[in-house]
Design a protein that fits this description.
Number of domains: 1
Distance between the termini: 37 Å
Order of helices and strands: HHHHHHHHHHHH
Oligomer: single chain
Structural class: mainly alpha
Number of strands: 0
Number of helices: 12
């Protein structure tokens, strides 16, 4: 418990420092918010065009699709808020030897490199996703229970951890290949699968997206809690996938550190 509180205080301190830095560039913060509003507007247009031609896609009606897009927006924005910048910066830290400054600190190195920077614009942008979901639930006339809210938030957190695990693993491949940032394009392409219902994919691809590359677990599962209920088996499966991927990052990080060449070597 003492260590947990220590890490909580450390996280809050790092977030405070990032907030101070963010407020020094307020215009950039406002531009980021404005850009995301435009992007969300384009998503609504995209859905409207699709559903002008059909009543259902993969068994999802228009407002259920809006819930899926809102869920995906929340997960991606919160991932970007806490982990994206850290994962991208890690590549250069490893390559240039700047990781030395982390390793000499009396704190878990993976924790430090994963949470050092916070993007407050993305945290603010994530609120739009909750607004989308609330509006869609109102249109559907669906009332959700406190238990469903808790399960939804649990699976959102699980989805964030899956995205973090995948990008973190790509970043630390730098230990072996010298520079892994080019692999981020692969990550961007894979995340496109999170925007659509899993039912639209063929069985083989759907199985891959539920297991080896669990992009359907990221946003489909939490959205299904709100639009039709999620079987308890799938809930446990989703959590097992999230925990497994986090354990893989810990193992791969420890293996990578054995290959690390510091700036002094």
């Amino acid at each position: 418990m003492k260590d947990f509180l220590r890490y909580c205080r450390m996280t809050l301190l790092m977030m405070k420092n990032c907030l101070i830095r963010e407020m020094q560039f307020r215009s950039n913060f406002i531009i980021r918010l404005f850009t995301e509003v435009i992007w969300l507007g384009m998503q609504f247009i995209y859905v409207e065009v699709l559903y002008s031609l059909t009543q259902s896609i993969g068994g999802w009606n228009v407002w259920e699709m809006v819930i899926l897009l809102g869920t995906n927006h929340i997960i991606n924005q919160l991932f970007e808020a806490f982990f994206f910048d850290n994962c991208t910066k890690l590549v250069d830290q490893i390559r240039l030897g700047d990781l030395d400054f982390v390793l000499v600190k009396p704190i878990n190195s993976q924790f430090m490199v994963s949470l050092r920077y916070t993007d407050y614009a993305s945290i603010t942008n994530s609120m739009a996703g909750f607004a989308m979901i609330g509006f869609a639930l109102h249109k559907l006339g669906t009332a959700i229970t406190p238990v469903e809210v808790l399960l939804f938030l649990l699976l959102v957190l699980n989805g964030i951890f899956i995205l973090y695990s995948m990008m973190f693993c790509l970043s630390i491949l730098t230990f072996w290949i010298g520079r892994a940032s080019n692999l981020f394009e692969l990550y961007y392409q894979l995340t496109q699968f999170t925007r659509y219902p899993g039912e639209i994919y063929r069985f083989g691809l759907r199985m891959v997206l539920l297991t080896a590359i669990p992009m359907l677990v990221v946003s489909n599962f939490p959205a299904k809690v709100l639009v039709g209920g999620l079987l308890s088996g799938r809930l446990f499966y989703a959590c097992a996938i999230g925990v497994s991927f986090l354990l893989i990052t810990t193992w791969l990080w420890s293996m990578g550190l054995k290959r690390y060449r510091s700036a002094s070597s």
